[in-house]
Amino acid sequence: MASGSRTTWTVIDRAHDALRVAVAAVGEDNWQLPTPCSEWTVTQVLQHAAGDQLGFAAAITGEPGPTENPFAPSGHIDGSPVELAESTMAAAARAWDRIDPAAETAPVPVPPHALPPAVGAGACALDAAVHAWDIAVAVGAPSPLDAEQAARLHETALLIVEPLRQYGAYAAALDPQPADDAVAALLRYLGRDPGWSR
């Protein structure tokens, strides 16, 4: 399902597509279901993901970021969840289209607040993609991540995640398992149980 705003960054487009598919799979009565983010509902995970996409956009453009703290989502969305997802992904896509891949750094909303462009784009994509997985599994939908995408995002995660754990952005890593595929390996590194279910 490839629609919505496109960028010059394939990694971001694929992550946005994953989030788009996950949000589309949420039934009207499923927004309050629990998720792998143990304290958050589906609604709150979407609010967090949307806020983070706006945060990435604002870091680049200087335009307003999220009006709500992405790490303390209210659980209430005014309007359509789909429109919230689409508008924030579009803002991030427009912002990343300003970034020259050959630039030395790109601004990002998390420490160290500047990363090589490919790593920064990967960080933006990682956030959207992993929360797409959270939403999908919460409502019993198929994982929107594939092995190739997960392997690419894992490369980025290895570069950025460890310093961010101290801020609560990521849970402690889970021990890898011999049978893990690329998706499971990524999820465990980000502190998620690939076999999670309600």
Automatic annotation (TrEMBL):
Molecular function per GO: metal ion binding
Ranges of residues in domain Mycothiol-dependent maleylpyruvate isomerase metal-binding: 13-136
Record-linked InterPro entries: CHP03086, DinB/YfiT-like, Maleyloyr_isom, MDMPI_metal-binding
Spans traversing the lipid bilayer: none
Protein name per Swiss-Prot or TrEMBL: Mycothiol-dependent maleylpyruvate isomerase metal-binding domain-containing protein
Species in which this protein is naturally found: Pseudonocardia dioxanivorans (strain ATCC 55486 / DSM 44775 / JCM 13855 / CB1190)
Lineage of producing organism: Bacteria, Bacillati, Actinomycetota, Actinomycetes, Pseudonocardiales
